[in-house]
Structure formats: C-alpha cells, structure tokens
Design a protein that fits this description.
171 residues, alpha/beta, five-stranded parallel beta sheet, two-stranded antiparallel sheet, 12% strand
Length: 171
C-alpha cells in the first residue's frame, strides 16, 4: 500500500498519522442520498449489486448531512432548490466533498438558454470537487468520479486546503 513507508519486523508498520488518516478518509466515503432528477436513477444503480460501490468503501448512503462527507448532486438544480442544497452542504461535517453529476447539474443542461428557473451550474452554489459529465452519466462514470475523488483525498494528505480550489473534471 502507498501509505506504508517502512516495514521493520513482522506485525510492525510505521507511517505518518496524516497518511493513515488520509487512507482512512479515502477508503470510507459516506455519500448523502440527494437525487433531484433523472441522474438520481443512475446514482441508485451504483448502489446495486451489478456496480457495487461498496468495494470503494462508499456504500453506506446516508439520509442526513450530519453523517455524510460526500454530497452527490444528481440532477437539475432549480433556483427554488438552491437554498436547500446550500443549507445541506453547510450542515455536513468537515472534511466535506461535492460531486456534480450530470449535464443539468454541471451547467444547466438543455435548460441553459431558455430555462429561467434552472441554476447554470451547481458550482455557483457550493464548491465542487469532481464533475461527472453525461446526460445522464452511466454508473461507471460515477464510479470513475469516486475514484478521482479518492485520488484527490490521497493527494491532500495532511494539508488544509481552501474550499474554492479548482475542481477535477472526469473525462
């Protein structure tokens, strides 16, 4: 494993506390159930046996923001819903992460030009860590976004980062 630096004798592992904490965070991400539109169906499919999000340590979907550390915003965010999204985000404990899933969430989707009621990107409301494009994105794309989030958590071991940092797009 990457977080193990040296091995001295049988049963003894030496590593830093920051690396161990980072490994524990990336291996036990608890997403919040927060589906707004059709992308939520694909998010629910990831929790099934075929795609098995449990192997990444993220299978414990939480219904309350106080027990979750990942908000997957899946679907069209309207201006009426925007204040609720922000309120749920602020109720989450630190460190917290946001994943924007779907074209409507990322940039307004087909409602971009004439949809006066649709927010033109959830990053205007909450800071986004990973973008998962598609309409709707396949469950495999959501798993890829989860792996990119794990990479981001691994890379920020032991450092405090500002929340307005640039997001990681999923290609």
């Amino acid at each position: 494993m990457a977080w193990i630096e040296n091995r001295h004798e049988e049963g003894l592992i030496i590593t830093s506390l920051d690396r161990m904490q980072s490994w524990a965070r990336e291996s036990s991400i608890w997403p919040m159930t927060f589906g707004l539109a059709c992308c939520a169906i694909e998010m629910m499919a990831v929790g099934g046996g075929r795609f098995d999000i449990d192997r990444f340590g993220a299978g414990a979907f939480r219904a309350t923001p106080r027990q979750a550390d990942l908000m997957i915003v899946a679907g069209t965010v309207t201006y009426k819903m925007a204040s609720r999204v922000r309120r749920l985000y602020h109720q989450m404990a630190e460190p917290k992460y946001v994943m924007a899933m779907g074209a409507c969430t990322i940039g307004g989707g087909p409602y971009f030009k004439y949809g006066y009621h649709v927010v033109k990107g959830v990053d205007l409301i909450v800071p986004v860590d990973v973008y998962v494009p598609g309409c709707p994105p396949r469950p495999e794309a959501l798993l890829e976004g989860l792996m990119r989030l794990q990479d981001k958590i691994r890379a920020t071991a032991g450092e405090r980062r500002p929340r307005e940092e640039a997001a990681t797009p999923v290609a």
